[in-house]
Amino acid sequence: MATDTMATGGVLAARGGTFLTEERVPDEVFTPEDLTEEQKMIGQTAAEFMENEMAPRIPQILKLEYEVSRELMRKAGELGLLGIEIPEEYGGLGLDKVSGCLVSESAARDGSFAVTFMGHTGIGSLPIVYFGTAEQKQKYLPKFASGEWISSYSLSEASSASDAMNAKARATLSKDGKSWILNGEKMWLTNGGFADVYITFAKVDGEHFTAFIIDKGTPGVSLGAEERKTGIKGSSTRPLIFQDAVIPKENLLGEIGKGHKIAFNILNVGRFKLGAGVTGGAKLALKSAAEYGKSRTAFGQPITNFGLVREKLGEMAIRIYVSEAIVYRTAGLIDRNLEGVDIHDVAEALKRIEEYDAECSMVKVWCSEMLDYVVDETVQIFGGAGYVDDYPAERYWRDARVNRIFEGTNEINRLLVPGRILRKALKGELPLFQKAMGLMDEFTAGPSFEEPEEGFLKAEERMVRGARKIATMGLGIAAQKFGKALGDKQELLGLWADVAMETYALESAVLRAQKKAARDGAAACALQEAAVRCFAQDAMDRIEAASKRLLAALDDGDMLRTYLTALKRFGKRDAVNTVALREQVAASVIDAARYTL
């Protein structure tokens, strides 16, 4: 049983990063099978709205008919879908992060509308939820929750890319002290074309990075032309231009010089919710691929009879299952850690969310890359038809690509993962270095000859332990070799981030399936067992490959051979027939023509 936990409202929540240093048990993780009836109802409401109200309007959305998007957002507001995370006192529902993920997953019924929807409910609303004054919350949040007003958000500038703090937009206080005068240009204003409110950032006196709430129609504020994007063509993305724009003093958001806290905290929340959105998109693509594959014949039979097509469908479903596991595990961790926190204690709430910053970054990267695999194989199953816009596969493919750029690029997030883990270790919050030293003692002591425990996914449970040791060993050796200079070794940090992500994904999948088996019996979980056993083998292959590259960059000669021997021992496992396991999953998907795990 894990010991490094935090008491919140009488419930124990595992600390962030401890998936590397401690064993978790199934009852400690939240899974999609744990949804309450209320949560299921919210998810069903969102799904029905997207299918019945939004989907028929996709052709108009793709033509950027702004009023169609606004009309749909107002209808979503009437159903309460825009106010999931807005407090009840401001017209919202004030629900948990899991409910927010369910709605985000349903919003992915179309990539363009998902950006509109999540841009409004997430980065467009949450800055005011968490950082707004009482007056700002009262003015904006009820209208955001109802859909009367649509919010938008822009952080980037043409010259700053991922370096948001290098902003050139400037704000100065007017001579009478009543207004802020803004000059500059922001890029990628999501929802810009039809938004009523713009959340953005500028440097006060050219030095202090600060957030502002801009109302549409403000003197000196204008929009550039719609960006002609590769995908998500039905979402509005425009530059935001300030030319001596006069912003009321009370529209400053948060504190002067603290805009980075708003930007980074909101992006942190957005990362695991993006994971939920892309999971929904992957389910949609899998359904389309299975349906098309069953209807398309070649050599006198449906192409879903062919092994290489079945392999694709099985692998797509397996990765979606794992994606669900890490998304809802992370959302559950955050919800549990927020229990007992006063709704008005924003600083404490943000601290509780930030505890899982590494996990949020891992979810964002792993899930967005999962979706890219799924949509790419969907195009492949559609064949030539997948490459033309008469069929949905082409749109899924184009819409998916931006998710590796949204909410901080995957490269930035890969660097954030080890950076945040190391920060916790150096502060004494995570016994990473002690664990790494203990592993070398364990290795020199020789292998254990204890009989392995038998049971449901016990072999995969042992793989999780091995993966945890490999990850800890790799980062410990790297930190010992380079010290503070490790922060400049981006290639090494990226390799280690891949190891950490696969470890988190593997553990999440194993715990999810074990929790279901404990409740429903192993016989009822044969499909999940097959999926996890297959994924575990592939995940360990990826962990070992990335670790070998990492270790070879850290030493050579006898020392490297020692490290590689330890890697081999910690990754030891029996080979299994993954072809048969993937086929078992594929058969279920093809039979139902949808995701079935």
Give your account of this protein's structure.
By secondary structure, the chain is of the alpha+beta class. The chain has 4 domains: 37-150, Acyl-CoA dehydrogenase/oxidase, N-terminal domain (Butyryl-Coa Dehydrogenase, subunit A, domain 1), CATH 1.10.540.10; 153-257, Butyryl-CoA Dehydrogenase, subunit A, domain 2 (Beta Barrel); 260-411, Up-down Bundle (Butyryl-CoA Dehydrogenase, subunit A, domain 3); 429-448 and 457-592, Butyryl-CoA Dehydrogenase, subunit A, domain 3, CATH 1.20.140.10. It has helices at residues 37-54, 58-62, 66-78, 97-107, 111-123, 126-131, 134-146, 259-295, 307-338, 346-354, 357-382, 392-400, 410-426, 432-444, 458-482, 490-520, 526-552, 557-570, 578-592; strands at residues 5-8, 11-14, 151-153, 170-173, 179-190, 197-204, 208-215, 221-223, 237-248, 252-253, 297-298, 301-302. Strands 3, 4, 5, 6, 7, 8, 9 and 10 form an 8-stranded mixed sheet that branches. It has a two-stranded antiparallel sheet with strand order 1-2. β4 (170-173) and β5 (179-190) form a beta hairpin. α8 (259-295) runs parallel beside α11 (357-382). The radius of gyration is 24 Å and the shape is globular.
Fourth-level CATH superfamily of the largest domain? Butyryl-CoA Dehydrogenase, subunit A, domain 3
Average of pLDDT: 95
Termini gap: 28 Å
Number of strands: 12
CATH architecture tag of the largest domain: Up-down Bundle
**SS strand fraction:** 5-15%
Principal-axis shape equals globular
Structurally, the number of domains stands at 4
